[in-house]
Design goal:
heterodimer; A: alpha/beta; FAD/NAD(P)-binding domain; Arc Repressor Mutant, subunit A; 7-stranded mixed beta sheet; B: mainly beta; two-stranded antiparallel ribbon
C-alpha cells in the first residue's frame, strides 16, 4: 500500500480520491492514459465517502444511501488501470507540473502532462470564544470518527451551527445510538427571506426531500434551538459549558463535547501554492479558483474538480471530475475521447447536480459575528493569535495577511492558514474598510504540508539539479 | 466523550500510550484510538502550552500532533494504528532529533 510511484512521469496525476478524483482517474485511465491517483487518507472516498472500503458501520441504512453510492466509484477506479497510492501526502505542485509527494516518510517527484486537483473542501473556520478547548471539535471530525471507527458521542453533547451536514451528522449519530443533548441552529432568520427567490430550484431538487426527512428525524429526538446569535465555549483546560443567546434569552448548559459546523470551503493550499489564480466569492464567502468551463486553471495543464473548484457537493464533484478528465483525454489522446460521452452530456448532468445550490448558499450563509470574531477570541489556532492582536497590528500598519505574518506569525504554524486564513482576510477587510478581494490571502508556498529537511534533502536529484545550484 | 458502536466487530490492535497498553481496533487512526480510550490524551501547544485535543480529524488543523514510534509532530488523525505502536502525548514543541 505504501509503495512509491512506479514511474517518473504520467500522462495524468490526480490529487485526492474523493468523488471528483475517483471519477477523474477512472476516465483518464480507462481512456488509456497513464494515470496516478494520490490520496492522503488510508482508503479512498474523500470526506463524504470516508472509509467506504473499511467502515465498521455495516448496516447500510445507518450511514444512508448517499454514502454507499461511493462504493461504485471506488470499484470503478480499482478496475480502471489507474495506479492508486493511499497515505500519499502531496506537498508541492509547480508550473512545470512536477508533483512532490511524501509516502511513508520518503518523498519523490513525479512529472505529469496534466494534473487534476481534487483536494476538496474543509470546514469553514468557526472562531468562537473557547473553540480551541479540548472537547470542541468540528461536526466533520465527529462524522469522520463515526464513519471510519464507528465512534459516537456518549457524554453531554451539543451540535452548533448550520448547514446540511449538521443535520446528516445528527441523524447518523442518533441511528448509531449516540447522544445529542441539543442542537443550536445559528441560521440567521433573515436568510429565509433572502433565499426565497432560489426556493423553486431547491424545492424541485433532490436536496429538498432528503433535507426535510433528516430534519424531521432529528427534531423528533433532539431539542433544537433556532436563531442562536451568540455562542461561547468555556472551561478550564477542558470544555465544561456552552453559553448561547437565542432571541433575548441567554443560557449556559454543561457539556462535554461541542461540535461546530458552518459549512465547507475549498481547500486552496496546494492550488494557490501552484500559482493558480483565485478570486473572492461573495456568495460562498471564500476563495475559489478562476476556472474555464472544463475546470482548467490559470496554470497551463492544471485543472481543478470537485469542491476545491467552488462548493457544489458530491454529485457535482463527480461530474466536474469527469469533465476535467475528458478535457485531459481530448488533449492527450483525442482518438480515445471520441469514445467518451460528449461534453454536452456532462454539462447537462452538472447543471442538474448544481440545482438548489444557490438556495443552500444563501440560506446557510454564515452570520458575520460567527465569521469575524472580536476581543480575546483566538483566530490563528497554531500561533494562538487573537482577534484583538490582529486589530492592534492593523492599527499600527499591517495592511494584509502577508504583512500580518511579520507582526503576529498568523498562518505560519503547521496548519498554514487553513484554520485562520478566511477569518484573517475578512477581519482585516472589515477593519480597513476594504473588500476581501483587495485585502487578499496568505501567499502560500510549497511545502504545503510540513516535511522534514532530511526528507527534502533525500529527494532523488539529477546531475542537472545539482549543477543548477553548485557554485564554481 | 465517545463510545464504540455495537456494530464494530473489527479485530483488536494493541498500542502503547505513554507506557500503558491500550486496545484499539484495526482501521482506527491514532487520534481516534486516543479519543475512544477515555484517557487524558491532551497535548500541550508549542506556543503557550495550552491543552488541546484533535479538532478536525481530517488532516488540516494539526491539533492532533503526537509522537509516534519516536517521531514527533506526526498527524495522529492520518496514521492508522499498528500492533505495538509506541505513542507519546506530545507536550510542547517537537524535540530536536525526534
Amino acid at each position: 500500500m505504501n509503495a512509491t510511484p512506479k514511474r517518473d512521469s504520467y500522462d495524468v496525476v490526480v490529487i485526492g480520491a474523493g468523488p471528483a478524483g475517483l471519477a477523474a482517474a477512472t476516465i483518464a485511465a480507462e481512456a488509456g492514459l497513464s494515470t496516478l491517483l494520490l490520496d492522503e487518507n488510508a482508503g479512498p472516498g474523500g470526506q463524504v465517502w470516508r472509509a467506504i472500503a473499511s467502515t465498521p458501520v455495516t448496516e447500510r441504512d445507518r450511514l444512508g444511501a448517499d454514502y454507499w453510492a461511493g462504493a461504485e466509484l471506488v470499484h470503478a477506479v480499482r478496475s480502471s488501470g489507474a495506479e492508486i497510492i493511499q497515505r500519499a501526502t502531496v506537498w508541492s505542485l509547480d508550473r512545470n507540473l512536477e508533483v512532490g509527494v511524501s509516502i511513508g516518510g520518503a518523498s519523490s517527484l513525479v512529472k505529469a502532462r496534466r494534473v487534476i486537483l481534487a483536494t476538496g473542501a474543509l470546514e469553514r473556520p468557526f472562531p468562537i470564544s473557547g473553540w480551541t478547548l479540548p472537547g470542541v471539535m468540528t461536526a466533520g471530525a465527529a462524522q469522520t470518527m463515526l464513519k471510519s471507527s464507528g465512534l459516537v458521542p456518549d457524554g453531554p453533547t451539543v451540535i452548533a451551527g448550520q448547514g446540511p451536514l449538521l443535520w446528516l451528522l445528527a441523524a447518523q449519530i442518533l441511528r448509531l445510538g449516540g447522544r445529542i443533548d441539543r442542537i443550536l441552529d445559528t441560521t440567521e432568520r433573515r436568510n429565509y427571506f433572502t433565499a426565497l427567490p432560489h426556493a423553486f430550484a431547491f424545492v424541485t431538487s433532490p436536496y429538498f426531500a432528503k433535507g426535510l426527512a433528516l430534519m424531521r428525524e432529528v427534531r423528533a429526538k433532539v431539542p433544537v434551538v433556532t436563531g442562536v446569535s451568540e455562542l461561547a465555549a468555556k472551561g478550564d483546560g477542558q470544555l465544561a459549558t456552552v453559553t448561547y443567546t437565542a432571541g433575548r434569552r441567554r443560557e449556559t448548559i454543561p457539556v462535554e463535547l461541542l461540535l461546530l459546523h458552518q459549512g465547507v470551503v475549498p481547500n486552496v493550499n496546494l492550488a494557490m501554492a501552484a500559482g493558480i489564480e483565485h478570486r473572492w466569492d461573495d456568495l460562498q464567502l471564500c476563495w475559489s479558483p478562476v476556472l474555464d468551463h472544463d475546470g482548467s486553471t490559470s496554470v497551463e495543464g492544471i485543472a481543478i474538480a470537485g469542491d476545491g473548484a467552488g462548493i457544489g457537493g458530491a454529485g457535482a464533484a463527480i461530474v466536474r471530475g469527469r469533465i476535467a478528465a475528458r478535457a485531459a483525454v481530448e488533449a492527450l489522446a483525442p482518438a480515445a475521447a471520441a469514445k467518451l460521452a460528449p461534453m454536452s452530456t456532462f454539462r447537462a448532468s452538472l447543471a442538474q447536480a448544481e440545482r438548489g445550490r444557490a438556495f443552500l448558499d444563501t440560506l446557510f450563509r454564515p452570520a458575520r459575528p460567527f465569521r469575524i470574531p472580536s476581543g480575546d477570541t483566538i483566530v490563528c489556532r497554531c500561533e494562538e493569535v487573537t482577534a484583538k492582536d490582529i486589530l492592534d497590528a492593523v492599527a499600527i500598519g499591517a495592511t494584509g495577511p502577508n504583512q500580518l505574518k511579520a507582526y503576529r506569525r498568523t498562518g505560519m504554524g503547521p496548519c498554514q492558514g487553513r484554520l485562520c486564513g478566511l477569518t484573517v482576510t475578512e477581519l482585516m477587510a472589515q477593519a480597513r474598510g476594504r473588500s476581501p478581494q483587495e485585502i487578499g490571502y496568505y501567499r502560500l508556498r510549497a511545502p504545503v504540508k510540513p516535511i522534514t529537511l532530511a526528507e527534502l534533502a533525500a529527494v532523488p536529484k539529477t546531475d542537472a539539479d545539482v549543477q543548477a545550484v553548485v557554485r564554481g | 466523550m465517545f463510545k464504540r458502536s455495537d456494530q464494530d466487530s473489527r479485530r483488536s490492535v494493541h498500542i502503547i500510550v505513554d507506557g500503558a497498553a491500550l486496545e484499539a481496533r484495526e482501521g482506527d487512526t491514532v487520534s481516534a484510538a486516543l479519543l475512544a480510550s477515555g484517557r487524558d490524551v491532551r497535548r500541550a501547544t508549542a506556543v503557550s502550552g495550552a491543552p488541546r485535543l484533535p479538532y478536525c480529524m481530517m488532516g488540516v488543523c494539526f491539533d492532533c500532533l503526537v509522537t509516534i514510534d519516536g517521531v514527533g509532530n506526526r498527524q495522529g488523525c492520518l496514521v492508522p494504528v499498528a500492533e505495538g505502536m509506541q505513542i507519546e502525548i506530545q507536550k510542547g514543541k517537537r524535540e530536536i532529533g525526534r
